[in-house]
Design brief:
Layout (H helix, E strand, L loop, with lengths): L1 H18 L11 H21 L3 H16 L3 H16 L2 E9 L2 E7 L15 E3 L2 E7 L2 H4 L10 E8 L6 H49 L1 H22 L5 H36 L2 H6 L7 E4 H19 L3 E3 L11 E4 L1 H18 L3 E2 L5 E2 L1 E9 L8 E10 L5 H4 L21 H11 L3 E7 L2 E10 L3
Parallel strand pairs: 7-11
Antiparallel strand pairs: 1-2, 1-5, 3-4, 4-5, 6-8, 9-10, 11-12, 12-14, 13-14
Length: 463
């Protein structure tokens, strides 16, 4: 018996650790608590006696409870909610969820012919054979929504083709919808928790891919800086053998080299700080999703050029020429409304891939070349709402990607068969897609003469 108690205590302690501070678990129930529960049990017995639910109505509640546990997805749950009244009472049903302060959409329905209600009442209403029972949200769920629902109504259940609604029927369906609401809360909160956890896991990958891996280059920068510092010591050893002009020239070269190295390290530091501040915003963790902070910015000066400076030495190390022929005027001021930190990381991912995968290729005029190009084009009326599209291109010479890979390029974890020995996680282009779609844009790939063009299209103009 003592061993059983010890095991129970250990389990209780571990569970308390999982649940967090302020949660105390005990196998012992206080007499006051037990008395309170007993009182509620008797109250419920009295309530159900007063309800006088029929055998079919009682079965409906039990069947719904069982099936709500059995069917796991929200889509199946919505179908169960409407199917039970349909098959047991032969009433058509619709289940609505709020998507805005006063905007609802049907998520479950037993028939698709009739028009849906466009004005959902916030109180229980019976009119022209239609019974509307609102579903109110609890504080925990309402606080998670990106809007404030009117009257805290997060949904509504509609039953119709009811010729005569009796008070007993109205009461039963109100109790039925209360159970729908309770299960809906549980499932929405669970899904929200799963999405939140999924976002955090994905955020860890984003930080690793966009911050931690690029930070490995600091080691290279510091090694180069150490070599330049060592050259100063070597100059000291040779200075007696040098003319004043040679000393002046060597010091000038060392100075310029140190300034260049400082600028490279400082630029890398600034971009790393920008990426960390962008990825680790408090709002991301509170909402469980990326919160985009858009503001007007100069595309070339504030986004593209800082990323080019980060990658310029790596392009040079691999013998890759930079070209500005992919549309647009190189020094033209193009102002966009975007999250600077996130779109900068989009370019960082595309330029990083360009460093790794640019190869020599034969261009249309027959000559061989190895280059990366960038630029932009404006596509009038590209989006359905009438906004123009700004198509942003990053092109690399090399063989075209296999056709079977092209549709999967922007999926999580996918790497094309032709990546060779280049390091990669398959996360970069997925991150690009995430960020661009958060901006209301699109991503894509297209083979070009002599190489591959990766692009994304953002809404462009005053919006």
């Amino acid at each position: 018996m003592e061993n059983i108690k010890k095991s129970a205590d250990v389990y209780s302690d571990k569970l308390a650790d999982m649940l967090g501070e302020g949660v105390h678990l005990s196998a012992d129930i206080s007499p006051e608590r037990l008395l309170s529960i007993k009182r509620r049990i008797h109250e419920k017995l009295d309530d159900y006696k007063d309800y006088s639910f029929s055998a079919t109505e009682k079965r409906a509640l039990m069947i719904f409870f069982d099936l709500a546990q059995e069917f796991d997805t929200l889509e199946d749950f919505f179908a169960v909610c409407t199917a039970v009244p349909k098959f047991l009472f032969d009433y058509e049903c619709r289940l609505y969820l709020a998507i805005g302060p006063d905007e609802f959409v049907p998520v479950g329905r037993t028939e698709t012919k009739g028009p849906v209600c466009t004005s959902i009442p916030l109180e229980k209403t019976y009119k022209s054979g239609h019974l509307f029972v609102p579903i109110r949200g609890n504080i925990e769920l309402v606080d998670q929504l990106p809007f404030k629902p009117a009257g805290e109504v997060i949904g509504c259940f509609e039953l119709y083709e009811i010729k005569n609604l009796y008070p007993h029927q109205s009461l039963f369906f109100e109790k039925y919808v209360n159970r729908v609401g309770f299960q809906l809360h549980s499932k929405l909160m669970r899904r929200k928790g799963q999405e939140h956890l999924g976002f955090v896991r994905n955020l860890v990958k984003d930080v690793g891919h966009n911050v931690i891996v690029p930070n490995m280059y600091f080691k290279l920068f510091y090694n180069r800086l150490r070599d330049r510092i060592e050259n100063i010591r070597l100059l000291e050893l040779e200075i007696d053998k040098m003319t004043p002009e040679q000393i002046r020239s060597s010091l000038e070269l060392m100075y310029l080299g140190l300034v260049s190295q400082f600028n490279e390290i400082h630029s890398h530091y600034e971009q790393t700080s920008l990426f960390l501040e962008t990825l680790l915003r408090r709002q991301h963790f509170e909402e469980g999703r990326y919160i985009v902070e858009k503001r007007p910015c100069n595309l070339l000066k504030q986004i593209i050029e800082p990323q080019l400076e980060r990658y310029r030495s790596r392009f040079e190390d691999r013998g890759i020429r930079l070209d500005v022929s992919m549309g647009g005027v190189p020094d033209q001021e193009v102002r966009i409304i975007a999250d600077i930190g996130l779109i900068s990381q989009v370019y960082a991912n595309l330029f990083s891939n360009a460093v790794k995968y640019t190869r020599k290729a034969t261009i249309g005029d027959g000559r061989e070349d190895k280059f990366t190009a960038y630029g932009w084009d404006i596509i009038p009326d590209y989006f359905k709402n009438g906004w123009d599209g700004l198509k942003l291109n990053v092109f690399t010479t090399g063989t075209h990607l296999p056709e079977c890979d092209r549709e999967k390029l922007f999926q999580a974890g996918f790497r094309s068969a032709n990546v060779g020995n280049e390091y990669g996680s398959g996360h970069g282009l997925f991150f690009v897609r995430q960020v661009v779609e958060l901006h209301g844009g699109e991503v894509g790939y297209e083979p070009h003469d002599g190489g591959n063009n990766f692009y994304f299209i953002l809404p462009f103009g005053d919006h």
